[in-house]
Design goal:
4-stranded antiparallel sheet; alpha/beta; about 280 residues; Alpha-Beta Plaits; homotetramer; 7-stranded mixed sheet
């Protein structure tokens, strides 16, 4: 399961002919070996998106030199772009409250090596999950959200930056983030909502679903924006229920689907497979 | 695929101990052979629901005599109940506009014998589908909805009653039914809505779904009430889409899921498997 | 999530008219309140199966007295039957090797209270998972399978009986059980096989699936019999893969589906929802 | 739903650096606008596969001139390649027996414009479906397979060639094709098998599935080779069943899944999305 070191190049730019040729020409000219390549055009927005994985060892220079040499080309096509290096693991800061099914799932994927990230700390507004987190040798930091909210979330932001977090994961964190925090880290905060959005946004979605009598329930992994439960959707899934299921049954089925939807969405984010276009995402699998 | 003649007994009543014993005792006392039995309690409403299929030949009397003899027991338990006879096929009146994927699917299931119903007529506000319907030797009736709506729908109601319809199926009928019509046939009008309700009610749901950037789309089969797209849900399903899919692709995927959700929901209704409780359904499979 | 104490009565017997009436009559006569009831007839075998959950507090006697009083009726109908008491948790003995995804999942469901069982011990032929198991305060017992197999499995059987195990769960235990052990505990040993049986029985199913080029992979939870991977199937599921997935990707997707299929199958077994008929199962949900 | 005319270029060749650059460079150099591009490497076989859709109007020459100019590049990289033109519809010859659910589905998709193909004729070894086919103004040709098999299939091959068929679709055609016919049209004969292969190959798969007690059934769309039910798989899917379902129920569920799996597989084939590598397929969606 060890894969060779790779650079992942993600690009968005105005659509026109010749972009693939220019980029793949640049890579080929330096002997670069492309192991995965994906493209997409958003027709309404007239934007082009691409993602390429290149074997690091096939290139005669490192990531920084790649970035330097690629810059003129990027400028010519007015690209928004990024090159990441698989040797530099992303750093996830995880926020939880008292429910631990998503946390248990994430930490298992992390400790088994399936999820290739660093987790510098777990932040919580409760003490309940301290011993489980610390059993993994991960620092557990309690932040009190009972008192002054703005202060508490300023503390969260500071911790995130201090731990050089790349991504903040709300793993069933039962607090609404203040708009200022959402705006400060656009495309870097990921939430798992326990409904198939846009149905049942807000509080108690399983209860809402039960009352409406739907025949499937779902979960949604999305980027957090200042609009509650309205950010770009990364991944969703549904599961069948029936009239015999109580709200408690829905919550139980829901836990399984929340775990898997968050894990899949997060994996795509960590592998730079998710590009944002307005309020939608392109997810290159 | 010929199954022996059956009586299907469906009951709802206030929940208490002894209901199953009383009903199954009544059936057993007359030698009745139960081939399928299902039960459900709605705890909040304190209502009990049951459905039993009994071999007609195992009983020494016919359906009318069953009803007469069962009435006192039903009264004792304050039951809302019904006995249907598989030899009496339900009569479906189908309403369509110009889209024919659901109609094509329904008529195929009907002519292949999979859907055991009679279809006395198809009603449409367009002429487009006349030849296809008439190829099946089913009368095709055009009702003009361009002019006075109330008159048009009065005509629909009259046709439905004249053809002794048991159930009116809106197979992508692109007109909103007036409240009076909905109230006149409660639990007897079935619609297929092209979204996973309660998301994207109303017009152009695929367009709405595309704009929101959801990762699955769905369809919903429900009873029609005077609240648009808000009646009791019988069946739903979803299908995965991705960023590469246009609105046209969504419409195409949607056709397949609309067909199968309508067919499954309708089959349950026709077999008396659907019991309504407030705005929810119990569906005994 | 606390549910009131229940007795679960499961029955199989030759099919005839009047069984439901007799059983529900017996329960009603003592004031028993049925909260869930399911029935099934296997037509070829002419066998009838039923499962009833009765509120313990609604009856004027305890489980033992129920059994005494019910025995004559059971004899009259030639029933194979069993009454279990939700206050008596089933005891699961879990066998593992080195892969821990199913174990991690099971222990999480156990410690969160979702899976209402006792786990008296975990047995393994490797030492790898000792610290994780012991963190849960569950005894971890190493059994050496490198040497004399028959002795090792005699030791497993002795441990299972000594810990009064109700069910032995092979949670990715990478050893074939000897036929004698399988025959000793019929219907009490549950395995998770990492393919959609009957495809890809035996070793390395993901590798087999990869070579065959299937478009979905699956997992199967089944009772263990002396025929390898051929016992009665309790639960199965599949997940979509594509040409871009390596064997390692299949293994990764597979872990998720193995976990959920085992968890669902085991839950059904623990709740006495699974009745065996020849090499098939009836699973009352 | 009208899409602009496109050329679709599909390529397989030995893997090496620079292929994407060379091909996209060639296209860009002539102003070609790529609207969809997909790549895949088979690591074991060290083969590279690609598919590109190019807007026909963006190029200064036609398909033949494209082929002429592209040939030297193709030779340099030892490519197996093909350029198809969306203005040239593929010609499907459909073979059926008496079951018509797949035929009904295919002809609906064809007459609604969803499946962009020509159907020069339908061939059958029975007369049952003549009137339905002829209602579509498609010639229906009866071939007698009761007598000398080799002659009958020679006649089928001749008809296929005479009607300039691109693809032969076995839409529940209940005859095993002779090896000679399979070898004569490699990658051009598509079958729908009514099981999740490799489980339940051969006759009566639903009966086999019923006897084994599986919890899901499936269908498989695959290219026909001389090994029965063992050709490269294009598409598969499964559906959940339970103990209450008879063989007839399995057959009924199966019809729906056969229809959709065949339709999806066939669509991919028609759009040149399926590339064969040994006994596996790459399906670019």
């Amino acid at each position: 399961m060890t894969t060779p070191r790779r650079y992942t190049l993600t690009i968005s730019c105005p659509d026109r002919a010749g972009i693939i040729a220019a980029v793949s020409g640049f890579i080929a000219q330096h002997g670069g070996f492309i192991v995965e390549a994906s493209y997409h055009t958003e027709h309404e927005a007239q934007l082009f998106f691409m993602r390429q994985e290149i074997l690091a060892d096939s290139l005669p220079f490192d990531a920084d030199e790649f970035r330097r040499r690629f810059a003129p080309l990027a400028q010519e096509f007015a690209m928004t772009w990024q090159l990441s290096d698989s040797a530099q693991k992303k750093r996830l800061v995880v926020l939880v409250s008292t429910q631990d099914h998503c946390l248990n799932d994430l930490l298992y994927r992390w400790r088994s090596g399936e999820l290739q990230v660093d987790i510098p700390c777990v932040i919580s507004n409760h003490e309940d999950l301290r011993s489980f987190v610390e059993w993994h040798d991960i620092p557990f930091i309690h932040v009190d959200t009972q008192g002054h909210k703005a202060d508490a979330f300023e503390q969260v932001a500071t911790l995130f930056e201090h731990h050089r977090g790349d991504c903040m994961v709300l793993a069933r964190f039962m607090q609404v983030l203040p708009p200022a925090l959402c705006q400060r880290f656009p495309g870097r905060i990921i939430n798992i909502h326990h409904s198939f959005l846009p149905s049942f946004a807000g509080a108690k979605p399983y209860h809402q679903a039960y009352l409406r009598g739907v025949k499937l329930i779902g979960a949604t992994c999305h980027y957090v924006t200042e609009e509650l439960d309205d950010g770009p959707i990364i991944e969703q899934d549904t599961v069948r229920i029936d009239h015999g299921d109580s709200v408690d049954d829905l919550v139980r089925y829901g836990r399984d689907i929340e775990k898997s939807v968050l894990a899949r969405g997060l994996r795509c984010h960590v592998e730079d497979r998710v590009l944002v276009c307005g309020n939608k995402t392109i997810v290159f699998r």
